[in-house]
């Protein structure tokens, strides 16, 4: 076959290609590009993560989920629901009601093994049951805040006793100095793990001196456990269950009964994980959303939870029924917390823009009024008592963190802090540390801001190259001073310790 004759344009194009190749060869660009590409391909850092079971689980029928409008429930239109002040926008109420005709297996007890995402959870169960048998030592707080009693006088309430006059005066004046040096808190690479997939809604430490374990709940209904002391690849180090069908709104691990763990969900279910029976028992189901739950420190039998729009219910394990209900707010309650020195005193935060302090002994009174109301301009995401019970910290969508102290919490300071995380990350909630000196809250720069109670301002920021995401939810270990957990929207947990 005769060679095809090239046109002038094609000859010129080939000549340009040849000349460019010679130029690149003389400059050695190709070898340099190869070396650069190889140097940028760094090995990926592997973090601890939950294990997924490769074995297929038996298929079960999921409960039918029905959306219930306000009209079908006989309620007036909810104009406030159109606003953006309700708690976490990323976990708006989507699973309100579970059909009573759904399968008995889903509405009744769930075997832990059936909802476990792994091969074996034996090590986890043994660890929980083992720590249950060991005596727990309480945290010695500077100043010995124990033995407090409560007095009432002319409509005011005063917590007295158990602290020295000098320390009491310091608390009333706005804070105490701490022996803890926050700048000494460090984050080590081995204390980073991905415990669950997706947004973490709740994070808690086990209230144990011998077991350093974190439990978290995410947006998808998963509950994950991480034994921080476990070695890499050790079975039972990270375990994950799926007992709920929606966002986990609350986790409670009581210091007097750690083998029983309560979890609540936006789907209206409260389940009790019983490590001895190896089940997630259904203890309560509601046609309303459950937003938060808590327990008194001296009572492991009763559970308090926020239900529906502004209501609180008390469930008693001894009777298996609701023993009290009341409506302290006009809108959803985002947090519930008990005073450590007087279990009758409770605080709540609400989307109605207030955080209130109540006396449970006055629930049945003709006129149920709050002992103290702290107002914010927008929704209040959380309200927590300090370890001494003499101060309160609140977090609001109005970009403030409020600290209230004094005899009747009348000394209120509003500290500016950017709390608007957007739609995809759970809202920040400020927490106390191990004494009344510091408050900890995440920030959007992948750090944790430390606010001084005494100075009423941020004095330090915890940052680390190992913390690669925003720590939206925090928890301080109740016994190990300096042990702080931060959980993210990606399911990672970072545990800071004293260096």
UniProtKB/TrEMBL annotation:
Biased composition (Basic and acidic residues): 43-59
Top-level taxon in the UniProt lineage: Eukaryota
Location of the region described as Disordered in the Swiss-Prot/TrEMBL record: 32-87
Keywords: DNA damage, DNA-binding, Repeat, WD repeat
SMART domains: WD40 (SM00320)
UniProt WD repeat ranges: 326-361
Gene3D superfamilies: YVTN repeat-like/Quinoprotein amine dehydrogenase (2.130.10.10)
GO cellular component: nucleus
GO BP, one annotated term: response to abscisic acid
Gene Ontology MF term list: DNA binding
Keyword NAD: no
Role of this protein: Specifically binds 5-hydroxymethylcytosine (5hmC), suggesting that it acts as a specific reader of 5hmC.
Family: Belongs to the WD repeat DDB2/WDR76 family.
The name this protein goes by in its record: WD repeat-containing protein 76
Native species: Rosa chinensis
Lineage: Eukaryota, Viridiplantae, Streptophyta, Embryophyta, Tracheophyta
